[in-house]
Amino acid sequence: QVQLVESGGGLVQAGGSLRLSCAASGRTFSSYGMGWFRQAPGKEREFVAATWITVNTYYADSVKGRFTISRDNAKNTVYLQMNSLKPEDTAVYYCAKHKGGSAHYTAVNSYDYWGQGTQVTVSS
Q: Does 77 have pLDDT greater than 90?
């Protein structure tokens, strides 16, 4: 069983920055991939970024160059640094644990544990 707890959301003006954190329970955090997703009202949950057990990271085109995903395996924590925020980034942000294997990192059903979500609101 893995528990994920996000923090760091809030209200920010367009152009501002936020850093989200996701703390994971369990002793094998370093052995699985982690992802960030977001869901805006009335829209489907969408992939934002993922970090693998290697140094590889992946980003949605909409956030590439503005967001950075990182992980600290000693702290069992994954981060999402969000810069140059736009009103369209407003959503509930979720971290998730990848289920492993060949499941594609952008697919919601490739992840088996999810946090409760943290609200990010970007005002114009």
A: yes
